[in-house]
## 1
Amino acid sequence: MNESILKQAISQYKTPFYIFNTDLLAVQINKLRTALGPDVELCYAMKANPFIIKELQDLVDFYEVCSPGEFRICERAQINMNQVVMSGVYKNQSDIEYALNQYGNQIIYTIESLTHWQLIENYALKQQITIRVLLRLTSGNQFGMDESLIRQIIENRHQNFISIDGIQFFSGTQKKSIHKYENELNMLDQFCCDLKKQYDFTVKKLEYGPGLPVYYFEDETDEEELILGGLSQLIKKLTFGGKIALELGRSIAAPCGAYVTSIVDTKINKNQPYCIVDGGIHQVNYYGQMLAMKKPPLIHWNKRSGETREWTVCGSLCTINDVLVKQYPFTSLQTGDTLIFEKTGAYSVTEGISLFLSRELPQVLLYSEQNQFRIARNMILTDHLNYFHS
Ligand SMILES: Cc1ncc(COP(=O)(O)O)c(C=O)c1O
């Protein structure tokens, strides 16, 4: 993130905080679209970072929304419901009925089980409206349905009001092997072609979550462009004839974010320098970090000359696991200094064990050149969530 933005943020706001530079979203989406071409739709998996959905409205085609909470966020942000794909492994009747009553058939629903199918089917029959769905194919876990069940549903599709737009598939995040994409896309292409041949069913849309990787650590060679280019080539080879939408979270959101935390204490224990920060692992998370051994993109804001030592950066939770990075070389590190963890736009703000120790939820700032700084969330104390109200 640009130094002058960080400088302003650090001078104005109390740590710990997240800052999301929403101008970088357009840059990142442009990168993705340039590599993938105009025919590939982009669906933002908002679980990666819900704070930026409004800024993505004109940049992405769809949002993957996985819970009633995420859906309410879309409503508050006034997201166009034609852009919503209501996904998620647990869909209950009242939530689905609410969405259908409010927004009719604007939303596309994913079907992850026979229960989901029946729920949507019953409503569609009762209201005599056609509801568009994607059938989620499992990759061998609790999500989606077996191929045999999808075939059965498609074979019997004429008896109801549901319009099956296509297939959804996601098998995992941070996938760094192009062969995995190749295997998955070949399998999906074959499956879609089979559905045409055997049931005269046209897959209009394949919604695929590739799990594009973000390279976080110092010792890694950044292959983001290479993988994206490879994925694009594989997509061009698909033969089933429908549209392809990529469900992406990490690769859209990660580059726009930084997490800023202050050093509140330093000590040397058994010859190892430790610094304690006012944040911790409940607020920042790098997928693939291993026992804090890997070095994430980290800036020591108060650089000064002097002695360089290898510091272990620990958070403020009372657990031995609250180590952000081990033996990181800092020069003349002091209490009061600021550390900035970059590429934290995806999952850090949502994935942490944020109620542990009843510490606060950090402030969230949005920055854009046009709107400058906006507070998207004030710091929130959590202790009242961890004890009953009298
Ligand atoms: C169904 C689905 N699609 C897409 C994504 C986004 O994955 P990523 O952040 O790796 O792009 C996820 C993440 O968990 C997911 O569950």
## 2
Amino acid sequence: MDLTYRLDPEVTPTLLDQLTRLWVDVNNAGGAVGFVGTTTYEDVRPDVDRYAESTAAGRHRLLAGFDAEGGLRATAFFGFNAHRLQSHYAWLYTVMVDPALQGGGHGRALLAAVEEHARSLGLEALKLTCRGGLGLERFYASAGYKEVGRVPGGLRVSAEDYRDDIMMWLPLF
Ligand SMILES: CC(C)(COP(=O)(O)OP(=O)(O)OC[C@H]1O[C@@H](n2cnc3c(N)ncnc32)[C@H](O)[C@@H]1OP(=O)(O)O)[C@@H](O)C(=O)NCCC(=O)NCCS
């Protein structure tokens, strides 16, 4: 199945609902997308509403992958830096693919679309952090991102489970 990627899709109630459902599904399938344990629609919806606000304000921009029926199946958010010394790069957040499609090359296609849009936005680099212990740094490394920092135990997943907080950087020139 091919997905169609769109930057800045119209932020409708349907899109916000789809984003919430996708995020819940990805988290509950074991994805490292900012929550811990099993989440519900009600847990995730406030984060989606914050994204709606920040995209309206231009602080974030959504790159969304849709299937042929208009279903939201993959996302990445660009987060722009307010500081003048950091305006040449953006952060990447909430990189996720529908669990039903994971492992089929859609993550790679998502990162290719991210890179293409980042270049056309004039960005010189992308930065992100990811949770250790899941192999995610290998996923990003396979798309050219370099590990540039690691805070040992920087993420507390639970009282007994601390993970490294890994920073990845993709130069675009
Ligand atoms: C991470 C994610 C976006 C990757 O998408 P995907 O469709 O599963 O990935 P692909 O099938 O395109 O795989 C691309 C490459 O990355 C590798 N890869 C994907 N996920 C990986 C993981 N968790 N650990 C190690 N390697 C991984 C694949 O093996 C593949 O490499 P190969 O071509 O050399 O075999 C997807 O699995 C996902 O949404 N995970 C849950 C959410 C999440 O944790 N997001 C990360 C936020 S930092």
